Amino acid sequence: MHPGCSDSEDRSIPIATLSLFRFDGTLPRLWVLGQMGAARLRLRRERRAQFWKLCGSGTGQGFTPRPNWGVWAILATWPDEETARDAVATSPVFVRWRAKAAESWTLFLDPTSARGAWAGVNPFAGPGKSQTGGPIIALTRATIRPARALRFWNRVPDISATIGADPNVIFKIGIGEVPLLHQVTFSVWPDAASMASFARGNGPHGRAIAAVRDGNWFAEELYARFALLGTVGSWDGGDPLAGRSQQKDAA
Fold this sequence. Notes:
Oligomer: single chain
Helix content: 25-40%
Number of domains: 1
Mean pLDDT: 80
Radius of gyration: 17 Å
CATH architecture: 2-Layer Sandwich
Order of helices and strands: EHEEHHEEHEEHHE
CATH topology: Alpha-Beta Plaits
CATH class: Alpha Beta
Strand order of the largest sheet: 1-3-2-6-7-5-8-4
């Protein structure tokens, strides 16, 4: 994973966005690497954002310690959907990144549940909601204890391959803050049953979760689910969620 996650911490967060950017060629990739410093300063001046992170991504199926220098992400939260859509369209950081990127794609997300902490806060906390339709989006974030990092990453290739082979997963990516020690997994599933079957089954992921619990591998964990409000842009030449029902959650 790439270094460079920045944040601001207003505590209320009704709407989240995940924006992915693909940079092709040496110069654009060097440019975005430099943005890990410059974009922090600009996002700190983006008053509409309540919480934000700048992250890199992993290679392969995404859940690996080897960085993908071409794919970067901005995760943010906003007071409401209208503000989120306007900020993604007009905020200088998003505008500049889209102009430099070969491709970009943003998901607008309504948190339905969240537990745990990210840098000491829960950026997705709020009233629980019951989702009425559309795909289930899952985000997990963990700070890996340095003494457990080698054992953790030894398990990741099996998990990554299993995610890629799962016929139910609609979209997945691994992003991160600090290489090897911070990990964020983001995946989209058609329903809660298929997601739960993967996460809690007897396969590599289920065994890895059991090992984590037994070995106290994580210093900090956060688990969140979202309903999909909509998307804008494209990824791999199209919208991976095109044609999917995108209903808001019911309170």
